[in-house]
Amino acid sequence: MENLIINMVGDIPTVTKSWAAGTVLISILTKAKLIDENKKLYNFDLAFKKGQYWRVIYSLFDYGRLNWISTLDIILSVNYLSSLETSIARKTRFLWMISLLSAILIILSKWAQPLSSLGQLLYANLAYYKKRRDMQANLHRDWISIPLVLSCAAKLFAYPMMHFSLIQLTMEFLPGHLLFFLAEVMSRIYDVDLCEPPTRWFTREQA
């Protein structure tokens, strides 16, 4: 059993493994009451106007209380993110894409309070990006796009009924769609790849 767990952990890519370890650590520290639940709640004004920057870090690794549901959530997320990370050539590119998504989410949160933690929103947008990219790679298989279209449509149709703002609802997929545009569309049309980390921009031009 121990060997199985070690092999499973060993197969997880570095960035995803670090994120998973962070979420578990935050959950354990919260359960042990070493971290106040209220300090994990992210709010733009509290974080950036009151100088409570730790809320950003806590929220990026916040997956709720440590229980069977959150544990299953983390396991499924790790499986999906591992698949995405291994499909991206360089870890620096993956980290930069995560940074871009986080920045977009934080900017949007200036105008609307997120409905879930930054970590959960970040995962939702990375999952959207992967599904959108898979759709592009399988254009001849129309059925692949159905779950993604239904998911986005359900969120938008829920907008007038649930009294959430449009920004709050689109936080779950709009940043991921922008990332897809930058990585898969803009880079091909304009030969500008903003999903490469800044350290590679000039190197790429010289090449």
TrEMBL record:
The answer to whether the entry has keyword Hydrolase is no
Q: Which UniProt keywords apply?
A: Endoplasmic reticulum, Membrane, Transmembrane, Transmembrane helix
Q: Where is this protein localized, as stated in its record? A: Endoplasmic reticulum membrane
GO terms (BP aspect) = response to stress
What kind of membrane protein is this, topologically?
Multi-pass membrane protein
Q: Which domain of life is it from?
A: Eukaryota
Q: Name one GO cellular component term.
A: endoplasmic reticulum membrane
Pfam name, any one: DER1
Q: Output this protein's name.
A: Derlin
Q: Which PANTHER family match?
A: DER1-LIKE PROTEIN, DERLIN
UniProt keyword Transmembrane helix present:
yes
Give the family this protein belongs to, as stated in its UniProt record: Belongs to the derlin family.
